[in-house]
Amino acid sequence: MSKQTIFFILLAVVVAGAAAFWFYREGTFSKEILRLEILGFDTAKVGDEIEYTIKYKNNGNFVLEQPKLIFELPENSLTEDSKTLITQNLKDIYPGDEEFVKIKARFLGKEGDLKVAKANLSYIPKNITARYESNTTFTTKIETVPLTLDFDLPSKAEKGKEIQYSINYFSNVDYPLENLSIKIDPVNGFTFETSNPSSLDNSEWKLKTLNKAQGGRINIKGRITADAGAHLNFTAKLGMRIAGSFVEIKNANIEVEVIEPLLFISQQINGSANYVASPGELLHYEVFFRNIGSTPFDNLFMVVTLNGPAFDTSTMNAEGGQAQPNSNLIVWDYKQIQGLRRLDVQQEESVKFDVKLKDGWPLSDSEKNNIVIRDSVNISQITQDFATKVNSNLGISQKGYYQNSAISNSGPIPPITGKTTTYTITWTINNYFNDLKNVKVKANLAQSVALTGLISPGDESSKFSFDSSSREIVWSAGDITASAGSSKSISFQVSLTPVTYQKNFVVDIISEATISGEDQATGTTITAKSSAINTSMPDDPTISGRGIVQ
Q1: What is the per-residue pLDDT for 382?
Q2: Which of 121, 464, 481, 516 has the most beta carbons within 10 angstroms of its beta carbon?
Q3: Taking Cα atoms as reference points, which of 192, 263, 193, 189 lies closest to residue 230?
Q4: How far apart (Å, rounded) are the C-alpha atoms in residues 139 and 44?
Q5: What topology does CATH give the domain 393-543?
């Protein structure tokens, strides 16, 4: 054997040995040396903040270098920085080291959805060139969705009938929900007409930020066009827009059976089918019902339900009916009403009742500028809903002061003939429910009373006028939005110089004030009045009992 042959044999042995050692090192390293796990909650509610703990431990004898963690949050998760894929470069992991990373997020989804989080940790074992990785997952089930979404819609509706229904929503989520929308599916056999609030495409409504214990309502009006016997499926979905996509959180559905028209139900309030009510007003209802079917009705019951907080149910008074104030119901039966005992084909009958509206009642933000009172009439399982517009609750407060006013006054108290005493008159406009246009306040100054020209605030002076011949003051307050409190005020100074014949009398200062404005929701002009003011100045306790001219 030649030396050259021996050399090549030895070289081959060395190379084979090196290769064997390398394959041994690579082959003996196991990915199981790195233990990787995710800790979290098995169940959660929508909107709850979930904290994941990603734990990892080096159970081997090698240093794991250049470790890199990639954590993928479940689909449609919410984070502070809007990232759902989180990448972190970690420090080298020495044998026996156990470390953890915490990540927080909130879930979106429907009840029963499974939310899967994924973790990937890659690394290079020391003295080995290959990069290894470990993977694990963790699944959380959405157990509850603390959101309410439901329909206020009867289970039966007559063919050709115009119906109104509402979609109610409420949040009990501890986290403010933003970018929310409610979507409805088109219904074959129902023609959409209007909604409040309005929708650009008649199918999706964007909601304001919904905090805990907040909710609202979408009112929809349309007409049943399907034939009798059809079953219409109404579906609504509440969700959130994320990256342009709609993520459903809650849904609701209801089936409505279309029936043949049997009864035509209508009503008038104070003699009008299109009456516009006012707060505090006594309303006289007359409900008409006519048999438009093909067979008579016998032994009917009729129930009227007054819906909402606007009615003072203690004032309910029904002719031939039983008022139930605690449940907002009035019931008539065939034993008291002849027309309910038997109603022949094309026969029409009516019932009457009275109820007073409250002076005011709480409103949601969505109701402002669209205030309606609602009642429902049910006869023989046939229901007709009615909505009546309500004027804004407009008020004017007129008060007089000598002291403690926006303008300083002077002169004798009590007033003395031939001497001048000044007073301040304050008008305060209160407006609830609806926005108003062209609001004006008017009153007349009494004889021996004049304006001094002092007005507060000064920028209202350009809207203030006085006709010397009629002695009428006009304040053109302009447009007044609906508010939970006082909307606008003005104060002006007047002077009184009593004459001889006024001695020993309380003297008039200004007549009752009248306010008017155009209601933008109802289209009517509404008015209100306040009391006149004399030198007794009942609103100023500092001069009480000193109003008689000396």
Answers
A1: 82
A2: 121
A3: 189
A4: 11
A5: Immunoglobulin-like (2.60.40)
Instruction: Count other C-beta atoms under 10 Å from residue 485's C-beta.
Output: 8
Distance CA 541, CA 538 (A): 7
User: What CATH superfamily classification does 147-259 receive?
Assistant: Immunoglobulins (2.60.40.10)
Fold entry, domain 30-144: Immunoglobulin-like (2.60.40)
- Quote the tokens at residue 131: 């990069």
Cis peptide before 414 (omega within 30 of 0): yes
- Name the pairing type of β-strands 245-259 and 156-158: parallel
Between 26 and 75, the higher pLDDT residue: 75
Label residue 109 by pLDDT band (50, 70, 90): confident
pLDDT band at 19 (very low <50, low <70, confident <90, very high): very low
Report yes or no: 371 and 390 within 8 Å, Cβ to Cβ.
yes
Residues in the chain, total: 550
Encoding tokens for residue 487?
């909307």
Q: What is the pLDDT of residues 137-165, one digit of tens each?
A: 999 999 888 889 999 998 888 888 888 89
What is residue 295's predicted lDDT score, i.e. its pLDDT?
Answer: 86
| Third-level CATH fold of 263-389 | Immunoglobulin-like (2.60.40)
Where are the CATH 2.60.40.1170 domain residues in the chain? 263-389
**Residue for token pair 């979404």:** 149
Stretch (H or E) spanning 493 = strand 486-496
Tens digit of each residue's pLDDT (9 = 90 or more) over 201-234? 899 999 999 998 899 999 999 999 999 899 999 9
- How far apart CA 327 and CA 165 sit, in angstroms, is 21
Q: What is the pLDDT at residue 218?
A: 94
- Which residue has tokens 């509206």? 357
Residues of the chain with CATH 2.60.40.290: 393-543
Long-range (24+ apart) CB contacts under 8 A made by 183-187 are: 183/236, 183/237, 183/239, 183/246, 184/220, 184/234, 184/235, 184/236, 184/237, 185/233, 185/234, 185/235, 185/237, 187/232, 187/233, 187/234
Give the pLDDT confidence of 424-452 residue by residue, as tens digits: 999 999 988 889 999 999 999 998 899 99
CA-CA distances (angstroms) from residue 511 to 425, 449, 463, 516, 528?
Answer: 11, 11, 20, 16, 14
Average pLDDT rounded to a whole number, residues 473-493: 85
